[in-house]
Design goal:
Elements: E1 2-8, E2 11-17, H1 24-30, E3 50-53, E4 56-59, E5 72-74, H2 87-94, H3 105-117, H4 123-130, H5 142-154
Parallel strand pairs: 1-5
Antiparallel strand pairs: 1-2, 3-4, 3-5
Helix pairs in contact: 2-5, 3-5
Length: about 160
């Protein structure tokens, strides 16, 4: 059993796995008890498992734990608290940008990363950036998610 040290949502953790190729998602769910990243497709094609590794979005279902040893991992719930949501989360709340919320880690974390690197990004720029990575939503809340990201980009999250 190998131990992989990393920081998850601001807390230093030691994740253990028999196989260094164990997907990060499994260990986040089983050992850290995160609920943000979800198992969607298991192939990195839907985005439900998205987390930030050292500030960059990754698909945790296809990222081996050995590849992120020592990294800082942030999940959706690690952005803020329920009592004080992150501005991008607040934008999603105010726009009712999700129904079931299963997929929301992908659009929020990819959108946040893009907008933080491109403040004031336009709707078209955000749509173009998100179009470069598959993000699947079965509730068909895509337009409301995009509206929420535009609000976040404009700094209008209330």
């Amino acid at each position: 059993m190998a131990v992989y040290k990393m920081t998850v949502n601001g807390v230093s953790v030691n994740l253990t796995a028999d196989d260094p190729n164990t997907p990060l998602l499994y260990l986040l769910q089983e050992q850290v008890q995160t609920s943000g990243p979800k198992f969607g497709c298991g192939l990195g094609q839907c985005g439900a498992c998205t987390v930030l590794a050292n500030g960059q979005p990754i698909r945790s279902c296809i990222t081996n734990v050995v590849d992120v040893a020592g990294a800082t991992i942030t999940t959706l719930e690690g952005l803020a608290t329920p009592a004080g949501p992150h501005p991008v989360q607040q934008a999603f709340i105010s726009q009712q940008a999700m129904q079931c919320g299963y997929c929301v880690s992908g659009p929020i974390l990819y959108g946040k990363t893009f907008i933080d690197a491109n403040p004031g990004a336009t709707r078209e720029q955000i749509l173009n950036a998100l179009g470069k990575t598959p993000l699947l939503c079965r509730c068909h809340a895509h337009n409301r998610m995009l509206d929420a990201l535009v609000l976040y980009s404009q700094g209008k999250t209330q």
